[in-house]
Design goal:
This protein is mostly beta strands. The protein has strands spanning 2-3, 6-7, 19-20, 23-24, 28-32, 39-46, 54-60, 63-68, 73-80. Its main location: membrane.
């Protein structure tokens, strides 16, 4: 997923402090299912490169703040179909 630079306020100024920086996130998943069998095993990951990024920001009086995004997450699933 890629998101370009985004102004924190509509029609934001062209200074760095008033924009959320652009970011790129990489996610992946893989599933294994045998040819004969009712089960599956999957693994998945979000933010695979563990990048620091900001999802949103705001302003309170004269202070600008950025809210960070989630770090890398790796998980798994097991499925059974009957």
């Amino acid at each position: 997923m890629y998101r370009g630079q985004q102004a924190m306020i509509p029609g934001g100024l062209n200074t760095y402090g008033y924009h959320l920086p652009a970011y790129f996130l990489l996610g992946a998943h893989a599933t294994f299912k045998p040819t004969k069998g009712p089960w599956t095993v999957s693994v998945y990951a979000t933010n695979l490169l563990n990048r620091d990024y900001y999802t949103t920001g705001g302003m309170a009086t004269t202070t600008y703040f950025w809210i960070p995004g989630t770090p890398r997450f790796v998980g798994g699933r097991f499925g059974f179909q009957y």
